[in-house]
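Journal club prep, notes for RB
We'll compare a predicted complex against what the paper describes. Inputs for the copper (II) ion case:
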Amino acid sequence: MSLFYARQLLAGVFAAAALATVFGATAAKRDAGDFGPPQGAPIHAVLTSPPNVPPPTNRTKPAKVIVNLEVVEKSMPISEGVSYTFWTFGGSVPGSFIRVRQGDTVEFHLKNHPGSKMPHNIDLHGVTGPGGGAASSFTAPGHESQFTFKALNEGIYVYHCATAPVGMHVANGMYGLILVEPPEGLPKVDHEYYVMQGDFYTTGKYREKGAQPFDMEKAIDEKPTYVLFNGAEGALTGDRAITAKVGETVRLFVGNGGPNLVSSFHVIGAIFDEVRYEGGTNVQRNVQTTLIPAGGAAIVKFKAKVPGSYVLVDHSIFRAFNKGALAIMKVDGVEDKTIYSGKELDSVYLGDRSAGNLNAVATATAAAASGTLTLDHQVKAGQALFAGTCSVCHQANGAGLAGVFPPLAKSDFLAADPKRGIGVVLNGLSGKLTVNSSEYNSVMPPMNQLNDDEVANILTYVINSWANPGGRIFTEEVRKARAEKVGGASTRDH
Ligand SMILES: [Cu+2]
């Protein structure tokens, strides 16, 4: 080989090497979702509390986005008259909603309020890197930590605390959602809402009053006391229901913080036109119920077509009616009888949780707490609760159903000893029974999921209605009967 050819060959090798370097560098720097360095002045991310969602970024270029998120440990209501010490990202459960655009460089500042008792950190599922930020964000009370990541993949992602014991931090409400918009943004809709499910473990029973501590054993056994949307029973019902008008499109960002349960997310009376299941980019159409894993999220979209109350539930249905996993979307507008002929389904699905009813119960709870509970408070709260629990069988007017459900109206069985109602409700009743000269031989299931206040108020309502003799049943009497297990057995042989 002449020197000339050797030189040519070497030059060729160098050229190829140089090209390889260029391509290599490009490949390393420009992964999918990397649109280059941030442009323009840094932007402070708008953070929102649930059920609100920050506005679209409306950007066409990658930016540096600064996120300031503060961890706050605080006591908040988890149910009517029940408080719980939540650990929060931004003061709410779920934590503040974060919205960025694919390709953004996110400078994350995690602060831990000086009043906190625990250290905390954050693992964002939208981060590419070990621990999703957890290792770089361990923050003691009164401190702040900072790390930076590039949002490479679009989608809806869960974030959560990952400080040991991780399960406990998550169970106390330490999770939220971060949306990484695709470069062109999401298609425009009329409403966007932020809804996130979580399971909660308290030492007391469901709706047991007072401050309820976390129960580690129940959490390990995966036996939640509450399953909730947005951290509290009633967080999205009554005046706090989410809203839309007929003809509008609604996009829900639905997360599941867990820590344990997966969610069978369903909206009673609606069909999801589109679901980005698991938060990924595939779109599934015409979906009735979508599965949202713990530590996962979905984006669902549908058009409101018929006015009324739509009930968001986890369709593992005991969770909805006995653990709180129930929210309302109120759709206003003109009825379209060609799509749906009927009236509201409030009494069927909402029962004691429909708007007006909740108020009467809340008023009675507040009055009981301040020692000013009157007969009238009890009757009104009891009436609301009766509608959701007893009226299915005994009927709204207390008349019962001949041969099947005995009457509560003018019941001589009840009038003989109004207090025996306590044992009937707590323990149920079965066997032969004579009420107003008619025989019944059926089964009433125990209603011991009701708390002491609820039983007292329902029975007070019953004995003061439909020409019954009157009187009052007090919470204390119910508590005693429950503790002593005073039962249906003694009433059965009447
Ligand atoms: Cu934490």
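Talking point for the session: The pocket of copper (II) ion is lined by residues 87, 120, 161, 163, 169, 174 (CB under 6 Å).
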